[in-house]
TrEMBL record:
Every Dienelactone hydrolase domain range: 74-296
Protein name, per record: Carboxymethylenebutenolidase
Listed Pfam families: DLH (PF01738)
UniProt-listed PROSITE patterns: TAT
InterPro entries hit by this protein: AB_hydrolase_fold, Dienelactn_hydro, Dienelactone_hydrolase-like, TAT_signal
SUPFAM superfamilies reported in the protein's UniProt record: alpha/beta-Hydrolases (SSF53474)
Length: 300
């Protein structure tokens, strides 16, 4: 049995550092804990903003799904436009908090753009609903024990599912947030089927972990898809210097990638349910994402 990684101040992951050092000034403007849970949000990320974005299902088919994997069925959430044949497929790689309402809403937002969007719950084997965990100390050992090799096969299974359901996997894209942003880089280095991807503040340098063989920066020479990296200048876990190092590594390897760093934006600036939300940066990042996926013919 593989030992779980030790979690101390020296080995905390970049996405966790960035999250835990952003705090609201007061509780005003936030849901009560019971209201947040009732609305489907995680509490592990801190208080939940009252003014979250809510995307309806008008014109969409959406809901829970089961994706066949080698050792069973992986839960997931999908949204796609009604009556549209062969829509492009976009995988949504979630944060460490499980498949909660923010990720589901993002999936619906992507469907409104004409895609068959799927968010796989690749932490399902942990035997507990991560969205119900409130303490980071309980959550981290679970998510940090997820092997990259298993993650890749889960994402491959998601693509297979989408194709079987009528999605056009010749126009396959992927977006991810926080740890999901890291997973975007990992999958882009592996999958020759991926046409384009967007990483929202995904860690580029990993904390020591025996089940993560290579960090995104180490995988720079292996990138097979063009990736857009969207980062916050004030992210306390992912330094601008790390972003610049990744950019240099990709350039040296002749890989296609672009980066945008938002001045003053913290980690999690797109997460409209968190205190870290920055609307101006979030809105621009969403437009950048659309333009990138359109440029590489995932959208449009």
């Amino acid at each position: 049995m593989t030992a779980e990684p030790i979690l101390d101040a020296q080995t905390l992951d970049a996405d966790v550092i960035g999250l835990t050092k952003v705090a609201p000034l007061s509780r005003r403007g936030f849901m009560t804990a019971s209201a947040a849970v009732a609305a489907g949000y995680t509490l592990a990320a801190g208080p939940v903003r009252a003014e979250v974005i809510k995307t309806d299902t008008t014109g969409l088919d959406a809901g829970d799904i089961k994706i066949k994997v080698a050792d069973g069925e992986m839960p997931g959430y999908f949204a796609r436009p009604k009556g549209v044949a062969n829509p492009p497929v976009v995988i949504v790689a979630m944060e460490i908090f499980g498949l909660h309402e923010y990720i589901k809403d993002v999936t619906r937002r992507l469907a409104k753009l004409g895609t068959f969007a799927i968010a796989p719950d690749y932490y399902f084997r942990k035997g507990t609903d991560l969205t119900k965990i409130t303490e980071m100390s309980q959550l981290l050992p679970l998510v940090n024990s997820k092997p990259d090799a298993e993650l890749i096969t889960d994402l491959d299974a998601t693509v297979t599912f989408a194709k079987a359901q009528g999605g056009n996997t010749d126009r396959l894209g992927m977006i991810g947030f926080c740890r999901g942003g890291r997973n975007v880089w990992e999958y882009a280095a592996y999958s020759s089927a991926l046409k384009a991807a967007v990483a929202f503040y995904g860690p580029l340098v990993d904390a020591p972990n025996p089940v993560w063989p290579k960090s995104p920066t180490q995988l720079a020479p292996d990138m097979k898809a063009p990736v857009l990296g969207l980062y916050g200048e004030a992210d306390t876990g992912i330094a601008v210097a790390q972003v610049e190092a990744m950019k240099a590594a990709l350039t040296a390897a002749g890989k296609t990638a672009e980066f945008k760093i938002y001045p003053g934006a913290p980690h999690g600036f797109h997460a409209d349910y968190r205190p870290s939300y920055r609307q101006e940066a979030a809105d621009d990042a969403w437009k950048q994402m659309q333009a990138w996926l359109t440029k590489y013919k995932v959208l449009g």
